[in-house]
Amino acid sequence: MKIRDLISASLLLTLCACSNKGLYDNLRLQQRHECMKQPPTTNDKCLEDANKSYEEYQREREEALKTPQEKSKPD
Fold it and tell me: Interior CA angle at 47 toward 44 and 51, to 5°?
C-alpha cells in the first residue's frame, strides 16, 4: 500500500468520525510527511510546527480570534 493511500484512508476515517482533534492530528501527520521532503536546513522548523499539540493550536486560535478590545483587557 502506498503512503498516499494510507494517508487518504486515515483522512477518510477521521472525517467519518467528525472529530476536530482527529482531523487536526491527521493534517499534522501529512505535514510531517511533507517536512521530510524538505532540505535539512528547513526541515527542523517545519517539524516543530507540525508537532504542535491540538491544545496549543486551540489556545493560539482562540487568542487570534479575540477582538482587539478583548486582547487589551487585563485578565
Answer: 140
